[in-house]
């Protein structure tokens, strides 16, 4: 392989890594902001989304699944961290591990804070990177105590102290969780 080809391959790898990181962020933005087209744009048509308790195959099933999540969870916010991407030089297939912390409000008004890891496979097809599989591994969910949050803000008294007692959590381990 000559130097020019090596540089081109290295540049394509860097562009691929950047695109994988962008897609990981776009997944969360689309889900949290309830932007269906933005959420669906990260997937290839035949992708698989495995949320742990159910598995959805193809863009139509994925679209229906996220809309059901939105109906059951009026608020969700994802934070992605510890993103590790494996993309070999010259490859069009990437594997990623992404830790996630998610704050979710249920239709009952209850709040959950959950942690887990996404196991991702992404591919470059026809010049476009996208998820071919995203599998969620839940580590645990913590139910926030009732009254811990009022309309999403902490009310302060004139003394600067909170009107509410500190947030207490009730741990609910998922099957196979740590």
TrEMBL record:
Family matches, as SUPFAM superfamilies: NTF2-like (SSF54427)
Pfam family of the protein (one): SnoaL_4
Protein known as: Nuclear transport factor 2 family protein
InterPro entries documented for this protein: NTF2-like_dom_sf, SnoaL-like
Superkingdom to which the source organism belongs: Bacteria
Segments forming domain SnoaL-like: 14-135
Region of interest called Disordered, as start-end residue ranges on this chain: 144-178
Feature: compositional bias, Basic and acidic residues: 150-178
């Amino acid at each position: 392989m000559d130097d020019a080809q090596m540089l081109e391959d290295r540049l394509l790898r860097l562009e691929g890594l950047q695109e994988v990181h962008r897609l990981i962020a776009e997944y969360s933005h689309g889900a949290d902001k309830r932007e269906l087209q933005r959420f669906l744009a990260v997937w290839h048509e035949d992708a698989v989304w495995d949320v742990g308790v159910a598995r959805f195959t193809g863009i139509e099933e994925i679209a229906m699944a996220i809309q059901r999540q939105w109906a059951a969870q009026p608020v969700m916010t994802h934070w992605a961290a510890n993103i590790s991407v494996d993309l070999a030089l010259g490859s069009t297939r990437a594997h990623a591990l992404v830790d996630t912390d998610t704050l979710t409000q249920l239709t009952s008004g209850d709040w959950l804070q959950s942690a887990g890891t996404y196991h991702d496979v992404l591919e470059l097809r026809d010049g476009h990177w996208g998820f071919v599989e995203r599998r969620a591994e839940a580590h645990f969910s913590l139910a926030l105590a009732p009254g811990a949050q009022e309309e999403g803000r902490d009310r302060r008294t004139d003394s600067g102290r909170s009107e509410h007692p500190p947030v207490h959590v009730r741990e609910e381990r998922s099957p196979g969780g740590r």
